[in-house]
Specification:
The structure holds two protein chains of two kinds.
Chain A lengths: L1 H19 L3 H34 L4 H34 L3 H6 L4 H35 L3 H32 L2 H25 L14 H8 L8 H13 L7 H35 L10 H10 L4 H16 L1 H4 L1 H17 L10 H27 L11 H6 L4 H31 L3 H28 L9 H4 L2 H34 L5 H34 L3
Chain B lengths: L1 E10 L2 E11 L4 E5 L6 H8 L7 E6 L2 E2 L4 H6 L1 E4 L11 H11 L6 H13 L15 H13 L5 E5 L7 H16 L3 E6 L2 H7 L2 E6 L2 E6 L1 H8 L5 H8 L15
Parallel strand pairs in B: 3-8, 3-9, 6-7, 7-8
Antiparallel strand pairs in B: 1-2, 1-4, 4-5, 9-10
Helix pairs in contact in B: 3-5, 4-5, 8-9
The chains are: A mainly alpha, B alpha/beta.
Chain lengths: ~575, ~250
């Protein structure tokens, strides 16, 4: 037990040191992150509260809806927990740099395994607490359960995390026994991304919005069938749902003890099974993870793409483009996210194809054009979200090899603008596809088509420059995983600024666009005062766009040239 | 070829490199030795343009690094102590990437030159493998290949023997001496006093950011009043003085 505590202590001490030894700048960052987190919690809480309150107002099936929602939420959490444990177990049990020290120590294998398993459960579960707590508190506020709810939430939440951890770690150990650890990560990531993309598309194409429109169903029975989720009494999330619901619905709760016993006995059994399996196969897998495997690079298609991309540029610019493209497409955790992006585009466009415009009392041409204009803002937010994942980490993606750029004769300014150019073309393509396809589905006027696609075209320059520039202002060359870069302080700041930039453009253009569209629809001329408003608004937009392009790039360049 | 003039680097109020004045002639192999934390790597990183000096100047081939960074870097090859590279590129692709950064076009002569360098460092059979599958020593040799590719006038080398097996170390020493014969100037920091004694024509000992002695091995022995190995000279000269900086950076 003492050894287990010793093996766990570096994490706790490191956490304590990072809290106590943080300088003024670090404290400010922590404070901003806490505020953003609290705002997110408040938003999630308010949203959940509103939905549950609405359900309560629905006669007959209101409680049923709330019960189903709870089941769905807990099942999603449970699936996410299992997947998250698989990924985290891989790095905690097989790939962490401090593992050599642990295995070389005289601590028994079982203790090393348990310490890493505890790390895994901690690392994987905190996200569920962040997302889950406000939702559960909204349930508590709406249904006013007794103290038993909170106690059950605490111990059953912990029990569910243990069960998910047991399953996730077990799967990882078996996978690493079959594949080398590095390959296992790629396989898991690829399967995860494909699964998530498919699930997202499937969910959307099922049109869940029909559930709030019971008129669309012929009978209550049909509606209830559509409501049924893929639940099973054998799922741990089901046991938690039923226990919590017993308290929320003030039921007799005769099954509470049984459900709790089911969960905890499963957690205990899985822990024991994991320890036995670890004794049999963990060290063999860890040992194999140390062995370097020769990896030949995939060629042909990538060579062709790289050759095309680098052709118009000077050798130093072409070299950076060449390197970035190869690194991106050889990293399975990176390129596979393009599949998710594809699913996102399909669902985005699909949403516009099923808009019930014919059911509104507003004049259809007006509505079509207004939606088309608001769509610029929506597509802008989508591009911001894509940018935080792909463009913001562009500078940090150099990682510890950034010294190569620093010591090379390529000026940092050219390096930064090369990154800008590299991402500009695909982002322009994405932005214009979103706008043109949806405008086509909305059958907007040629004027609106030109206005929205023009705004998007120029807006992309600003979003990309913000991404590259702020990525350079908040570089993280010491990351273990490039995906972590987007979730840091800089990533959050970028998202906020990028969203503000898009919102500002939409607000500034709203007046002139309204005037122009109404004049066209009504066939009346635009007055000279209106022209003054239009021209000054568009000029202001242009100035903001120019600022959004050059200011962050300049600030990023300054930070990067002082980077040590 | 290299002139460091009043070069100073301050971290959080602590002078890790303290008013350094140093000149190195063309075609010489200059050894820079000192205890851990003495300021060797900081000096080398400033010379390579990776760190910005707090004050002072770095002149290479008559050009000021602060005034004309691109031109100076064009004639410098830098080999850091830890070979962090782009893991998703192959060795061959990495060499072409470096060629691109230094403005070398993809002519057939370049391909031949890369082939020769990979052959020289015993990496030919690994040219098409991703760098992520290389060992530490192989990465170190690849960095050396890439540093020699643009045929630099000055090579700045930080701890070149770390991670190399005896054969690799011998190979590297021979290559460095050959480079000097071709008039390349080498500025090398090392912990290995045997390596310094064997290959360096001139040696400087740095301690707590300042040069405390400088000269050939024989001159250093005379200064120290020791008639033995470079190790005893080093121990004698650094005797009684603080090894590195007295207080950690976090304390300032």
């Amino acid at each position: 037990m003492r050894r287990l505590y010793l093996l766990l202590s570096p994490r706790f001490q490191g956490f304590r040191n990072s809290l106590t030894n943080t300088g003024g700048k670090g404290r400010k960052r922590t404070l901003i992150l806490i505020l953003v987190g609290l705002a997110f919690w408040a938003l999630l809480f308010a949203l959940s509260f509103r939905v549950l309150r609405y359900f309560q107002s629905v006669e007959v099936i209101g409680d049923l809806l709330a019960h189903h929602l709870l089941g769905m939420i807990l099942m999603v959490f449970f699936s996410l927990l299992v997947f998250s444990h698989i990924i985290t177990a891989l790095s905690n049990l097989y790939l962490s740099s401090d593992l050599e020290l642990c295995h070389a120590s005289p601590a028994p294998l079982e203790t090393v395994f348990l310490s890493r398993a505890i790390y895994t459960v901690m690392d994987s579960s905190w996200m569920v607490i962040v997302f889950g707590l406000p939702v559960m508190m909204a349930y508590a506020l709406v249904f006013k359960p007794g103290l038993g709810f909170y106690v059950s939430l605490l111990h059953m939440g912990f029990g569910m995390a243990l069960v998910a951890g047991g399953i996730g770690i077990l799967i990882t150990m078996i996978l690493v026994r079959i594949f080398p650890a590095q390959r296992t990560r790629d396989v898991i990531m690829l399967l995860g991304v494909c699964g998530l993309g498919a699930l997202y598309m499937m969910f959307r194409l099922l049109r869940p919005e029909r559930l709030v429109d019971p008129d669309a169903f012929f009978s209550i029975a049909q509606y209830m069938t559509a409501l049924q989720g893929p639940d099973s009494p054998y799922l741990p999330s089901h046991w938690v749902t039923e226990t919590l619901w017993a308290y929320l619905s003030h039921a007799s709760g005769k099954d509470i003890l049984f459900q709790s016993a089911l969960l905890w006995s499963t957690a205990g059994a899985l822990t024991a099974i994991n320890v036995w399996v670890a004794e049999a196969i963990y060290f063999t897998g860890f040992s194999r993870a140390q062995e370097a495997s020769r990896r030949r690079a995939g060629k042909r298609a990538l060579d062709l793409l790289v050759a095309l991309a680098r052709r118009p540029f000077k050798p130093e610019v072409a070299a950076i483009i060449d390197k970035d493209l190869r690194a991106f497409f050889r990293d399975n955790t990176q390129w596979s996210q393009l599949l998710l992006l594809g699913a996102l585009v399909v669902v985005y466009v699909y949403n516009f194809s099923v808009l019930p415009l014919d059911k509104t009392p507003i004049r259809i041409e007006f509505l079509q054009n207004e939606i088309a204009f608001l769509n610029v803002g929506l597509a802008g937010f989508v591009l911001s979200a894509v940018s935080v994942r792909f463009i913001f980490p562009a500078v940090s993606s150099e990682g510890a090899a950034f010294w190569i750029i620093q010591s090379s004769p390529v000026p940092l300014k050219r390096f930064l603008w090369t990154k800008f150019g590299l991402y500009l073309f695909p982002m322009l393509l994405l932005g214009e596809v979103l706008i043109l396809l949806t405008n086509h589905l909305l059958e907007v006027t040629p004027l609106m088509m030109a206005l929205s696609s023009g705004t998007m075209f120029l807006g992309v320059f600003g979003i990309v420059a913000l991404g590259v520039g702020m990525g350079a202002m908040f570089p993280n060359f010491k990351h273990q995983n490039i995906a972590q870069v987007a979730t840091g302080f800089g990533g959050v700041m970028f998202m906020m600024l990028s969203a503000a930039f898009v919102a500002l453009i939409v607000v500034l253009e709203a007046g002139p666009v309204y005037v122009l569209v109404m004049a066209e629809l009504r066939g009346v001329p635009v007055t000279s005062w209106q022209w003054v408003l239009i021209v000054s608004s568009f000029l202001a937009v242009l100035v903001i766009m120019i600022l959004a392009v050059f200011k962050p790039m300049k600030m990023g360049l300054k930070t990067l040239s002082q980077y040590e | 070829m290299i002139n460091l003039i009043h070069l100073t680097k301050t971290y959080k109020g602590l002078r890790t490199v303290d008013d350094l004045d140093l000149g190195v002639a063309e075609g010489s192999l200059f050894g820079f030795i000192g205890p851990n934390g003495a300021g060797k790597t900081t000096t080398l990183k400033m010379m390579a343009g990776v760190l910005k000096p707090t004050s002072g100047r770095i002149i290479v081939d008559g050009m000021d690094l602060a005034q004309e960074p691109e031109k100076v870097k064009q004639c410098i090859g830098f080999i850091p102590d830890r070979p962090y590279l782009y893991e998703k590129l192959t060795g061959m692709e990495f060499m072409k990437f470096i060629a691109g950064l230094y403005g070398m076009d993809h002519a057939s002569s370049l391909q031949t030159r890369i082939g020769e360098l990979l052959e020289m460092f015993d990496l030919t059979h690994w040219g098409d493998e991703l760098i992520e599958s290389y060992s530490h020593g192989m990465k170190q040799r690849l960095v050396m290949c890439s540093a020699l590719l643009p045929e630099p006038k000055v090579l700045i080398v930080d701890e070149p023997m770390v991670g190399l097996d005896p054969r690799g170390a011998r190979l590297v020493k021979d290559i460095f001496m050959e480079q000097c014969r071709r008039k390349t100037t080498l500025f090398m920091s090392t912990h290995s006093l045997e390596v310094a004694a064997e290959v360096c024509q001139e040696i400087a000992i740095i301690q707590a950011g300042k040069i405390i002695a400088r000269g050939t091995s024989e001159e250093l022995k005379r200064v120290a009043g020791v008639d033995g190995s470079l190790e005893s000279v080093f121990l004698k000269l650094t005797e009684g003085k603080r090894i590195a900086h007295a207080t950690p950076l976090s304390a300032s």
